[in-house]
Amino acid sequence: xxxxxxxxxxxxxxxxxxxxxxxxxxxxxxxxxxxxxxxxxxxxxxxxxxxxxxxxxxxxxxxxxxxxxxxxxxxxxxxxxxxxxxxxxxxxxxxxxxxxxxxxxxxxxxxxxxxxxxxxxxxxxxxxxxxxxxxxxxxxxxxxxxxxxxxxxxxxxxxxxxxxxxxxxxxxxxxxxxxxxxxxxxxxxxxxxxxxxxxxxxxxxxxxxxxxxxxxxxxxxxxxxxxxxxxxxxxxxxxxxxxxxxxxx
Length: 249
Ligand code: PEP
Hints:
Elements: E1 5-9, H1 19-27, E2 35-39, H2 45-54, E3 59-63, H3 80-85, E4 88-93, H4 96-101, H5 106-118, E5 122-127, H6 131-135, H7 139-149, E6 162-165, H8 179-196, H9 200-204, E7 206-209, H10 218-224, E8 229-232, H11 239-247
Parallel strand pairs: 1-2, 1-8, 2-3, 3-4, 4-5, 5-6, 6-7
Helix pairs in contact: 1-11, 7-8, 8-10
The structure holds phosphoenolpyruvate.
């Protein structure tokens, strides 16, 4: 399998076509140009993981979030070990909706990253700037800070890490970054990985783009973005669009 990914983030939604029809739709495509991951809401993880396996699909399941705590009196939280038990093999960490709507800061993101690695989940660390940071010309510094503060000893044991560059102003807004803009930030992400992270990740970490990706706007990102795949929200809820994105990668 290549070190390329297509990740579906359903957020707090279900596919309008229904979960079974969706799984039939994505499982019908046998295409190994990218590793596919479906991240449904927590209660659907087991069903999606089993449904994909029953259909013989080489598609993994991921969580959208995890607790940094191992166990105990943390009402409403779900541990990384529980996610693994439910079939998740990946987890998003530090998605911008978690950072902005649920006040997750870089220190918490770092603890979640360690917890995920400890439970053998592949972390998909989301980084990216808001419009204010972009307009002030501080994108590279902002993303470098996010990567620097995510570092912990756990990274030494991580077989695999995925980084998703998701400019906040592009998420769910219909505005997406151009390939050239993305390539610029991806270059600085790789530079920061080299400065702050175990050096193997400069080459080994897959760096994805996310932000209003659809089958109709990925050509420029594929050609110019210098990325290893996509993290897709809205368009990933439709199996036909998800398959079309894969087909154009
Ligand atoms: C996301 O949720 O990570 C995302 C990129 O959403 P959307 O594709 O809807 O912008």
